[in-house]
């Protein structure tokens, strides 16, 4: 069985299609998926999926790529996270690629999420793009190791992975590891310890080979697992087993 540690099934790409998506998950032995919140206004739709379908779980948080949105504070995040289907805080983090200029608000928002995760006793789902040094610095300054979590859709170098691992974090790989151009990322993926490895789709984005360019969905996480098995020199069953065990332990899904 596989688990997709990061997807956005509330996005419009999946409207009216959720039954097909769940059927293909089942056919491909993907028995759990974590639905990720990106804004507070869309959070109720994310939670509704997790309340309705037993194989779906949810997070609460505000993504760094949304400058003009309802800004969360620590107590609000902690209150929203106090729900049996909410298993993490995020996605949160830093993104200096999509947005430029003075991004102090992004760093402040990230700090708020780390404090909320610590207070809620739930792990963090961290997004980082073109901002790895500041991401690690803020995680250290705010004591993110007390919450733990995952560096999702990881595309950074080995020193960044090592720093996140040293803070007790997991590293999640997406369909990017199947892309021809991603040789250096595959080298990083080969080095992540078994007990810290996760897989994800980041659906509807980043469909893996052989579905590249299509709408991604949790069933395709299998292809990420297959590529990681090649890279790490083990069977796909072994990758499925260990990434699902890590997913269940990190997000307390039993
Ligand atoms: Zn992300
Ligand atoms: Zn995401």
Please render the helix and strand layout as text.
Layout: E1 2-7, H1 18-27, E2 30-35, H2 43-52, E3 56-60, H3 74-81, E4 86-95, H4 104-120, E5 124-129, H5 132-141, E6 149-151, H6 158-166, E7 170-173, H7 183-191, E8 197-199, H8 221-232, H9 236-250
Parallel strand pairs: 1-2, 2-3, 3-4, 4-5, 5-6, 6-7, 7-8
Helix pairs in contact: 3-4, 4-5, 8-9
The structure holds zinc ion (ZN) (2 copies).
Characteristic key phrases:
binds zinc ion; 8-stranded parallel sheet; 9 helices; 8 strands; 254 residues; single chain; alpha/beta
Provide structural commentary.
This protein is α/β, with parallel strands linked by helices and 254 residues long. Helices cover 39% and strands 17% of the residues. It contains 9 helices and 8 strands. The chain has an 8-stranded parallel sheet. Strand 5 (124-129), helix 5 and strand 6 form a beta-alpha-beta unit. Helix 3 (74-81) packs across helix 4 and helix 8 packs across helix 9. The chain is globular. The two termini are 13 Å apart. The mean pLDDT is 97. Bound molecules: zinc ion (2 copies).
Anisotropy-based shape: globular
Q: Strand-residue fraction?
A: 15-25%
Number of alpha- plus pi-helical segments: 9
Distance between the ends: 13 Å
The whole-angstrom Rg is 17 Å
Oligomer: single chain
Give the averaged pLDDT, no decimals: 97
Helix content: 25-40%
Q: Largest sheet at a glance?
A: 8 strands, parallel
- Uncertain runs: none
The set of bound ligands, ions and cofactors reads: zinc ion
Structural class: alpha/beta
Can you list the strand order of the major beta sheet?
A: 1-2-3-4-5-6-7-8
What's the SSE pattern? EHEHEHEHEHEHEHEHH
Number of strands: 8
């Amino acid at each position: 069985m596989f688990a997709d540690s990061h997807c956005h099934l509330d996005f419009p790409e999946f409207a009216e299609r959720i039954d097909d998506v769940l059927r293909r998950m089942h056919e491909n032995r993907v028995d759990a998926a974590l639905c990720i919140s990106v804004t507070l206004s869309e959070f109720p739709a994310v939670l509704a999926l997790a309340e309705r379908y037993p194989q779906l779980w949810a997070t609460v948080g505000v993504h760094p790529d949304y400058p003009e949105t309802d800004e969360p504070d620590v107590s609000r995040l902690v209150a929203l996270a106090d729900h049996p289907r909410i298993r993490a805080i995020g996605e949160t983090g830093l993104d200096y690629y999509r947005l430029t200029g003075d991004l102090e608000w992004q760093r402040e928002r990230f700090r708020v999420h780390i404090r909320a995760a610590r207070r809620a006793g739930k792990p963090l789902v961290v997004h980082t793009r073109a901002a790895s040094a500041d991401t690690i610095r803020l995680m250290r300054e705010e004591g993110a190791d007390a919450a733990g979590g995952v560096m999702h859709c990881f595309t950074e170098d080995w020193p960044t992975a090592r720093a996140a691992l040293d803070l007790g974090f997991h590293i999640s790989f997406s369909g990017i590891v199947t892309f021809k151009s991603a040789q250096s990322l595959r080298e990083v993926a080969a080095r992540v310890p078994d007990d810290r490895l996760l897989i994800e789709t980041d659906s509807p984005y980043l469909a893996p080979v052989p579905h590249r360019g299509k709408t991604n969905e949790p069933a395709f996480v299998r292809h990420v697992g297959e590529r990681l098995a090649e890279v790490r020199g083990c069977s796909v069953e072994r990758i499925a087993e260990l990434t699902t065990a890590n997913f269940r332990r990190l997000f307390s899904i039993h």
